[in-house]
Amino acid sequence: MRLEADELYFWKFVAAIEKKITGTAHMEINQEMIAFGPVPSRRLGRSLGVNNIPPKKCTYSCIYCQVGAIGKIQLGRRELYLPEIIVQEVEKKVKKTMEQGESIDYLAFVPDGEPTLDIHLGDEIDLLRPFGVKIGVISNASLIWREDVRKDLMKADWVSLKVDAVDKKIWRRINRPHHDLQLPVIQEGMLQFAREYTGKLVTETMLVKNVNDSITHLKDVADFLSQLSPAKAYLSIPTRPPAEKRVHPPDEEVLNTAYQILSSRLKDVECLFGYEGNAFSLTGNVEADLLGIVSVHPMREEAVREFLTRAGKDWSLVQNLIYHNLLFETEYEGQKYFMRRLDGKKE
Known about the structure:
By secondary structure, the protein is α/β, with parallel strands linked by helices. Helix content is 37%, strand content 17%. It has two domains: 4-276, TIM Barrel; 289-347. The protein has an eight-stranded mixed sheet with strand order 1-2-3-4-5-6-7-8.
């Protein structure tokens, strides 16, 4: 299966074509796609996406952004789509999904820009409540210092906040924020939100080679995340063509180190590094199950051996996966770990 980001990209494309064919889009937004999916998501189950922001309207211009470089970075909240239009488009998708006998676990605000730039975000969440589906918002957290933004996000059941950097220079290099934004103010806003929020708070940290992946910085990120105390902290890497060609994922050994550092400070860390599969159960396809697990949680050698014993397999399975360049062995603080090799990576 493909990455969650790839699934979102595909379904956005499908929905855009669908609107052109059916002519259901409103004239003022006929180039935009409001609702898409549902798509399979490791974070949210079956997620129906809500795209409440036109492309390239953001507070950041991240070097890894798959939307591309942002022409004019924005800071002020404003009306982008009428809330009624958002609800209308979501209702169409929900109805169609239900008619097909499919389920929806979350309505997720995952737009092509920063969702909190939408001044009607809170109203839209309220209007979507009658559908009886949990609501999630994926935000870069840049506006969370604003009380009205925190108030809107409080209405969601699940909120993801971006924490790519805790050092000002690294933050400006990787996220390229609006010049008026200040990292300490954003961090204080995140901490205040974490103290007050009663839903499920998660974080996501995108790792870019030689930018924010040093051991010192990773430890600082772990320290800050421990203050937020998220239900889960996700580590991710660029997987689609980024805004800057110089952007690459860190080496696999560095990814394992990042996982270990965050895991030493946080109760639950998960990797989103490249394989979407059945991560924790034995389905009968032992190779696929093992690769699914180690793509999310690097496993110690003894854990792999125990897994194989339960599955009735021997160590030759691991050797075969290594031989075919699907699995690799690395070390961290004297312990052997096994991880899924990134797509396209060779010895």
